Each structure stands twice: as C-alpha cells, then as structure tokens.
Amino acid sequence: MTLQRTLRRPTSCAGIGLHSGNKVNLSLKPAPADTGVRFRRSDLGGLEVAATVKHVGGINYATGLMRDAVRVDTVEHLLAALVSLGIDNVIVELNSPEVPIMDGSAAPFIYLIQEAGVKPLASPRRYLKVLRPMSLSRGDKRIAVYPSDHFKVTYSIAYDHPMLRHQSRTIRLTEDSFVEEIAAARTFTFLKEVEMLRQQGLALGGSLENAVVIGDTGVLNNALRFDDEFVRHKILDVIGDMALVGHPLIGHLVAHRGGHALHTAFAAQVVTETDAWTLVEGVADAAAAARVPAPARDLV
Fold first, then answer.
1. What is the pLDDT of residues 204-222, one digit of tens each?
2. Known catalytic residue at 260
3. Which one of 55, 77, 260, 263 is the catalytic residue?
4. What pTM was computed for the model?
5. 3-state SS of the chain?
C-alpha cells in the first residue's frame, strides 16, 4: 500500500525572493494526513493558504497563491520537489510573501527534504488517474494530458534565439528521475528582458547565481548544467504547477511553449472535468491504480 507521507522533522533555510529581492526565512514542518501542502505566513500571525488551484493568483513570471490577506509567490519549484519526493503533507512557513529562489532550481529543496527525512502516515495516498484526454490551447501554446499507467511529461519549447530554437524532452517521473534529471535545471531569462522586468518591479533578486541569463550569442553564466537545461526547467515548472490539483498525477502530460499562466489554467480545468479522471488510493504502484478506483471528491 502507498501511504501518505510527511517530513520526519522540521528543517529550514534562508534565501532571497527572486522578484522582491527580500531576504526570506523558510521552514518545512511535518503535518498530519490529509493536510496537504499549506503555506503559512509567520509575519502575518500564522495566516495560511493551501496549495490548490482555487487559490492561484498573481501569475507574473512565477506562480502565486492568494487567499484573503495572504499571498505567497514563486511556489512552483518547491511544489515540484515536494510532489516528486512524495511529500503529501507539510506546512511551509515563511516570513515574507515569496518562496526563496535559492539557485533557481529545485535541487536545494530536494536537499532540505532529504535532510528532514520522510515519515509515512497511516492514511493511503490518493492519485488523480486520467481516464480520457483533456487539453487547453492559447494561440501557439498548448497543454494536454492523456491516460497512462504512470506519470510522464513531454515538453517542447521554441524561441527566436539560436541557442534554443527548439528543445524537447520526454521523461517518466519517479523520485530518482526527478532528482537526477530535472531538479537541478535552473530558471532562465533573456538579457534583453531583465531591464524590462526590473522596470516592472520584478526580478529584483535575480542574478547569475540564481538564473541562467541568455545573451545574444550565449549564456552569461559559466556553463549549463545540462545541454537542454531550458526544457528540463520547463518540465520542473509544469510539475510544480500541476501539483496544485492536490494529488499526484497518473497520466501523460504534454506541453508546447507553455508557461505558468497556461499550466495553472490547465490545472484548474482538470479539476473541473470530473468525468475525465478518478481518484485511486492505496495502490502499490501506478500501473495497479487503474484497477482500484476510489470515489471522487471535491479537489478544491
């Protein structure tokens, strides 16, 4: 049986917000079964917002969550690490409205989770198993999910730049494959966009230490971590954004030229198309999930 999991003990780190430039203290704390991922603002007296699609707001070069007076931005890299390492329940405590960017990837959060350790809980994990295709298109951007016996992502990108006119990658996601092939891929931007972002009050904490910056002829950083680091980071982003459906996915996710706005809009669409999926629980592996249906419930 696959059980829900939380952290064995609390852990913490400090960094800066990519867009705010402010110093942030972040703590990950164990939580009981069926808590889900909840962001808690210690600077607002402990007010919380759950990491679900109904709280998505403020999509602007990152994914943000909003509920009443509570706002938390740039949640996608941490969410990708949590869902990929099978952490179902955790309190993410922050003293600022933005998750620290760290090195621009999910690798530091993987380290934090591994340092804290993983604790199984008594309740079975529920997976969202896709039964029929769902899709969303906006101009030349598109995203879809198809039935599969495991979680797989295919992503392609295309830019008017000689370094990344086209990149594509397909990966079957497991804890090991995420850690080894996706987690270390960093966020990226074009040098010509940096000044525009800063005029909008964004990327104030950005640097070559936490983002790959692409100039006219190449990257300004010393080296890429992967030849196709850009599309790998897009896979990281979509994993984090789709975690907002509230359950690990069993399906084949396919995206082309997507971004946070498209990813999160699709996550919201998936939640509403209740005839296209079922919740399955307590299965030993994803393939067996097709044979163990559980009653659907409200995901939001």
1. 888 999 999 999 888 999 8
2. yes
3. 260
4. 0.93
5. CCEEEEECCCEEEEEECCCCCCEEEEEEEECCCCCCEEEEEHHHCCEEEECCHHHECCCCCCCCEEECCEEEECCHHHHHHHHHCCCCCEEEEECCCECCCCCCCCHHHHHHHHHHCEEEEEEECEEEEECCCEEEEECCEEEEEECCCCCEEEEEECCCCCCCCCEEEEEECCHHHHHHHHCCCCCEEEHHHHHHHHHCCCCCCCCCCCCEEECCCCECCCCCCCCCHHHHHHHHHHHHHHHHHCCCEECEEEEECCCHHHHHHHHHHHHHCHHHEEEEECCCCCHHHHHCEECCCCCC
